[in-house]
Amino acid sequence: MVTLPPNRLKRALAAGQKQIGFWLTLASPNATEIAATAGFDWLLIDMEHSPNDLNDVIHHLRAAVGGTAEPVVRIPWNDPVTVKRLLDIGVRSLMFPYVQSVDEARRAVAATRYPTAGIRGIAGTTRATAYGRVKDYVKTASDEICVVVQAETTKAIDAGADIAKVEGVDCVFIGPNDLSASMGHIGNMGAPDVQATIARGLERIRAGGKAAGILEFKEDAARKFLAAGFQMIAVGGDGGMLARGTEAMAQRFKQ
User: Fold this and answer.
1) Spans of the chain, pLDDT less than 50
2) Closest to 111 measured CA to CA, from 132, 131, 127, 95
3) pTM to 2 decimals?
């Protein structure tokens, strides 16, 4: 019988292990394939701020096969219809943006679970079920689905412990850019009160018993976040690396 492979990211977060990730925004399966075999623990395939649609995500998932990294798809919004369709094509790890309350976190989890634990609709011959070959999929799917919710405002940070306690939430991921903007420091996540709020968020998420995540593309700052106790951290992205790398190369030769 065909069985579902374990979701290594979900298990690692539950075990308290650090998970290093890479952010993909260029909507390129080639970039996904390169990053998937680079040695990262997870990859973020972005649908919120990138031109990826459902068919694009399928190609990203196929490009990631054989790599070390678990594909995590950030959906455009906390929408159960989008979640249902992504789960059916084989997405197992989802990031929900802008979750500000316990109720919103519960709705995110419910979208990933079959009744009576949730509201996910049942379909038989999907990519997620290996086209009907995983016979016990409806009973075992939730064991391998990883739910990451984003805290992107001070309201979400203040509710961090309660959000983390929601059954089915695996990680609360702080969005530092939107957080800083909500605090009046748009474009300046390094502002002292923003950093203090991030530290408070980390404390509250851990008090709720779940992993905390964040993205930070500056190496020194990323290492500090890891040392502080963040488990799930994105340390770079395809767009930024290509932009900065090509700028630096052009500048070297033009000089």
Assistant:
1) none
2) 95
3) 0.97
